[in-house]
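Structure (tokenized):
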């Protein structure tokens, strides 16, 4: 029997390959960053060819570090940055344009035009999503309308669309020489095109957007054998057996399989998912309704999601744009040089504000500045912004569900920051729990793939793998908590109305 499962995690800032054993522990990993291309304010792009080259590289690094070959691998799972849009020629494998990243807001005019008939909630009952530049649909339309010849090539059947999971799987299974063009329900649910009930593309919505259906990948479950890696791959003949969008993968990796369970992932952005089981719950408080996962032919499991655009990328901004720190981990030490934020609040609305506000006219602000404020206060304000935004979406989840969460499971790169985690517990007023394996996004993809090939027996075995590493208990008086949060909400209002459609 093969000893390991490999997860490919194609994220917003980097691509990783991680080898997991049967206990869900990390055996080896490889990681490569890719360039962030920002040709105009509000535009964010990636080079798909760089991403594919990095994918091949990190697979080799991980296998070499573990000292294993394809014969030791039971299956491969894929997880990815969602909504990021790639359109490529199926005959050559060449993208027609850079990947348009989920953070990109160039398609706001398309949103405004479509919202003239029915508002931003025009297709919410079908898709669970508001009209917003965040999702893939408007990005596909932009490429077809703005890349010379793209529409005619798409209508002629030569172009394919996919989020990064589709791009990686298509290339990994052969590319122009027989590559499989698929996605899973969790990624399809983020396009604005998938009906949550039928789990199929909605032709009426495609017609409005002007997107030819043959461009779109086949929608499959999150856990099944889709095909095998191509002979040219280091993983040749290994089953590709799991696909989950990154936030759903993290939920799966946290073993939050049941209704009422939730997790919060701290990465480039921050994403809180609340499992609603087999029930489709439409939010009345600014959350998204989405698919959490689907295992083979079983019924889908749904979730409410609070999506925050900028958390870890705010720390990157302090590092790369302002030079306030030289590496991301330094933010905690700098923040510890002061006792509080000095009255300063950073609202990082670089791409507008996502949940629960959905304000595309918002832009980033620093509020409450006085001569007293120094770089330590700004560092602390940056970390606190993540915690405040999480409070925003957790309050919305509690309002929608009617059953307040009593603890929050957390994961992602920023959970290594003890100062942030303690403040998060303080501002929420509930315990914050970090698992032993914090790389739950890759772990969730591995779990989905391993289940499909029988490497793991079922969800109970995966639950048994989950173990607590640390718990932060709230220690802040309630009066102080609410005073600080009220000031945050006031700062948020100062970010509104900075741009016009």
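Design, position by position:
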């Amino acid at each position: 029997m093969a000893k390991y499962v490999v997860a490919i995690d194609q994220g917003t800032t980097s691509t990783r390959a991680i080898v997991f054993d049967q206990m869900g522990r990390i055996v080896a990993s490889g990681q490569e960053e890719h360039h962030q291309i920002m040709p105009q304010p509000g535009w964010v792009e990636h080079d798909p060819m760089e991403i594919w080259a990095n994918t091949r590289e990190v697979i080799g690094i991980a296998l070499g570090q573990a000292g294993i070959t394809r014969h030791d691998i039971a299956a491969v799972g894929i997880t990815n940055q969602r909504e990021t849009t790639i359109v490529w020629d199926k005959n050559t494998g060449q993208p027609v344009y850079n990947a348009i990243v989920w953070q990109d807001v160039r398609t706001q005019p398309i949103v405004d035009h479509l919202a003239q008939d029915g508002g931003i909630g025009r297709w919410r009952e079908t898709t669970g999503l508001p009209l917003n530049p965040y999702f893939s649909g408007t990005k596909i339309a932009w490429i077809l309308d703005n890349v010379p010849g793209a529409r005619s090539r798409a209508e002629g059947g030569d172009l394919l669309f996919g989020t990064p999971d589709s791009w990686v799987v298509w290339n990994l299974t052969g590319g122009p020489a027989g590559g499989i063009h698929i996605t899973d329900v969790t990624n399809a649910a983020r396009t604005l095109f998938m009906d949550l009930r039928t789990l199929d593309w909605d032709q009426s919505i495609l017609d409005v957007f002007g997107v030819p259906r043959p461009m779109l990948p086949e929608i499959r479950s999150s856990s099944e054998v889709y095909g095998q890696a191509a002979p040219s791959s280091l993983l040749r003949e290994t089953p590709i057996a799991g696909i989950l969008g990154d936030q759903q993968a993290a939920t799966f990796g946290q073993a939050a399989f049941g209704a009422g369970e939730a997790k919060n992932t701290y990465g480039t952005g921050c994403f809180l998912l609340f499992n609603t089981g087999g029930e489709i719950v439409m939010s009345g408080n600014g959350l998204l309704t989405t698919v959490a996962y689907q295992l083979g032919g079983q019924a889908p499991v749904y979730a409410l999601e609070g999506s925050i655009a900028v958390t870890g990328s705010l720390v990157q901004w302090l590092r790369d744009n302002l030079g306030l720190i030289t590496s991301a981990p330094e933010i905690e030490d700098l923040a510890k040089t002061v006792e509080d934020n000095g009255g300063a609040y950073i609202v990082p609305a670089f791409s507008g504000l996502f949940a629960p506000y959905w304000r595309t006219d918002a832009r980033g602000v620093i509020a409450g500045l006085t001569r007293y404020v120094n770089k330590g206060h700004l560092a602390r304000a940056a970390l606190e912004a993540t915690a405040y935004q999480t409070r925003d979406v957790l309050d919305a989840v509690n309002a929608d569900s009617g059953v307040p969460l009593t603890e929050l499971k957390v994961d992602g790169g920023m959970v290594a920051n003890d100062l942030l985690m303690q403040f998060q517990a303080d501002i929420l007023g509930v315990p914050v729990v970090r698992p032993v394996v914090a790389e739950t996004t890759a772990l969730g993809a591995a779990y989905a793939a391993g289940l499909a090939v029988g490497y793991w027996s079922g969800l109970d075995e995966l639950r048994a793998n989950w173990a607590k590493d640390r718990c932060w208990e709230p220690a802040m008086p309630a009066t102080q908590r609410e005073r600080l949060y009220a000031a945050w909400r006031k700062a948020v209002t100062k970010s509104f109305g900075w741009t016009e459609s």
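Reviewer-requested clarification: The CA atoms of residues 317 and 323 lie 8 Å apart. The chain has a mean pLDDT of 93.
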